[in-house]
Design goal:
Layout (H helix, E strand, L loop, with lengths): L2 E7 L4 H15 L3 E5 L4 H5 L5 E6 L9 H14 L6 E8 L8 H12 L3 E2 L4 E4 L7 H14 L2
Parallel strand pairs: 1-2, 1-3, 3-4, 4-5, 4-6
Helix pairs in contact: 1-5
Length: 149
């Protein structure tokens, strides 16, 4: 089974709630899991050759929350090439804004550029349609847990 780091970008706590709901589902599937609420580049580097799950909300005009922005820029500026990393992205947003789920999309784009291997599709969660995001994210996490085994 896999070692999974869950890297959280949150403003009002929804992304952290999703991460806390995902953790026991992944553990139940046999994975080792650690949540990083204020993730640093060193935390990310520990998962080279392992699995990262990015769960982030979007703020402003498609921007990353402060809690994960420094990680994003550290990965962009310092790492460059990550072909041994497998990852998934759960992006939270509101489709009434132009840059719907922009932070999650930016993270996915960066990791694709760095040759990381995305497992499954990026999950885009619309707050307008899903005020309780875990109703959508939990079934996705259960499926994703099988894909990373």
């Amino acid at each position: 089974m896999a070692e999974v780091g869950i890297f959280v970008g949150t403003v009002y706590g929804n992304a952290l709630l999703v991460a806390e709901e995902a953790e026991p589902l992944l553990v139940e599937a046999g994975h080792q899991v650690k949540i990083f609420e204020d993730p640093k580049l060193d935390d990310w580097k520990r998962y080279e050759g392992q699995v990262a799950l990015v769960i982030t909300s979007t703020t402003g005009q498609g921007d990353l929350p402060d809690s994960i922005a420094s990680l994003f820029h550290g990965i962009k500026d310092s790492l460059g090439y990550q072909p041994t990393l497998r990852y998934g992205v759960i992006a939270l947003g509101d489709s009434s804004y132009d840059d719907f789920c922009g932070a999650g999309k930016k993270f996915d784009e960066l990791l694709q550029e760095q040759s990381a291997v995305r497992v499954g599709d990026v999950l885009l969660v619309d707050a307008g349609e899903n005020p309780e995001p875990e109703e959508v994210t939990s079934p996705w996490v259960e499926q994703w847990a099988k894909l990373i085994s």
